[in-house]
Amino acid sequence: MVRERQRRSGSTRKRKQAAAGVVPLGSATYRRLRHPFAPQPIFSDDEVASIHETALRVLEELGIKVLLPEAQKVYESGGARVAEDMVFIGRDIVAEALRTAPASIRMRAPNPEREHRYEPGAMIFAAGAGCPNVTDRAGGRRPGTLNDFEAALKLQQSFEVIHKLGPSVEPQDVPVHLRHYATMRAQMALCDKPLFVYARGRGQVHEGFEMIRLGLDLSEDDFEDGVWAMTVINSNSPRMLDKPMAQGIIDFARAGQMTIVTPFCLAGAMAPVTVAGALTLQHAEALAGIVLAQLARPGAPVSYGGFSSNVDMKSGAPAFGTPEHVKMQLGAGQLARHIGLPWRSAAGSASVTCDMQAAGENAMGLWGACLANATLTVHAAGWLEGGLTFGLEKFINDLEVLQGLAELALPTEATQAEIGFDALAEVAPGGHFFAAEHTMERYQTAFYQPLVADLTNFGSWTEAGAKDSAERATAIWQEVLAGFIPPPGAGEAAGRLEEYIARRTEEGGAAPLE
Hints:
Elements: H1 2-19, E1 33-34, H2 45-62, E2 64-66, H3 69-77, E3 81-83, E4 86-88, H4 91-100, E5 105-107, E6 116-118, E7 122-125, E8 133-135, E9 142-143, H5 146-158, H6 176-190, E10 195-196, H7 202-215, H8 220-224, E11 229-233, E12 240-241, H9 243-254, E13 258-261, E14 266-267, H10 275-296, E15 302-305, E16 309-311, E17 318-319, H11 323-339, E18 343-346, H12 356-371, E19 376-378, E20 383-384, E21 389-391, H13 392-409, H14 416-419, H15 421-426, H16 437-440, H17 458-463, H18 469-482, H19 490-495, H20 498-506
């Protein structure tokens, strides 16, 4: 029992030290991961080619509705046929876009040690994003505020297995025409990981880029050298691209920044009810976005994206972590490899609380993304209610699975020392290896140490308060936030923005594109 208390005390102490920047939460080897498993197929090569061919027919014969006149002109200048709001894209235009789109992208960060190569084979995780609400056991479910947004950023910064920043909580107490100032300042002040900029109109996008250059003290050439800002572009399935998304693709492409073109196709609702049918629509919409980026600027960094799942046919509600969701992830991976581009997938949960359903759905989505070899997995931790809520306990519990996947991605050796013949010889038949020299040399670092899981017996668990994983997670995120210290240089970066933000706020900010 004494050893158990010491183990618990030591675990808590390490978390507090990590939150204070003394030691990292999670191994630094989690910073740049590669997929450990060969990608798993669900379709034959002929079936993948057939889906791709049908998607080309969709673009050629059925077309996609594009609401932004500027985007229509870009498509038309590239050879597409435009009739009113409908754009019809020939396969030769698609082929040329895929030829110029880069397969490997330098993903920059305020801290160079947190840069990534965004390319096939990389395994990058981002937290749940775009949630209008937040929930935790201390404060309950509530609309997101700037304070909640900043707390989510602190958690993202504190764990090595989260590789890029995302807008986990929407700060609804900040007016939309000023919100981009608050969100960029918070990223600069609290974090040193790759940044995001919302595509909410040309004014906000350009000001987001300007704040990155100003805060990080970048020249125009520095800003063009790799991707400093990323945004997710969601088409309006079926077959429509709205004004903010189309303009976002154009503006990011022309600035040399990355759009992650991600149709959100829910089979049975906004997409055909079959896995292959939903993927065909997803593929066509993604190709349309990729084409627009390449027509706006050939060679612009752009990512294929897939976030397709199914709905509950009884209620119409979105479902996540289902067998169909995983099948679509595997198929999306095949399609991304077919066109030769890096790609984005997603996990997530439809559960309304941090329970077994939430854990199971998210774990299924993470494994689907892993087996499909997704370059980026969004909504990897914290996403509840199909994106309506970001859960702090859910975030901590999901990290346990993420760190497990990260451990699988680390190399496992089979040297003579690791095989341990001397240890086998040392221990007599029927004995144990606890005191073997081989064990004593390695026991402190031999196995993954859980973040939140409790590996004790019933008696020890009861004595410690009989806390379930959500209760234990509450204590962890509270410890991390209480001891959080921004990374070196963050204060200076945020300070460079103060005058700019004050001036632009006084001038009225930048309204989002409707």
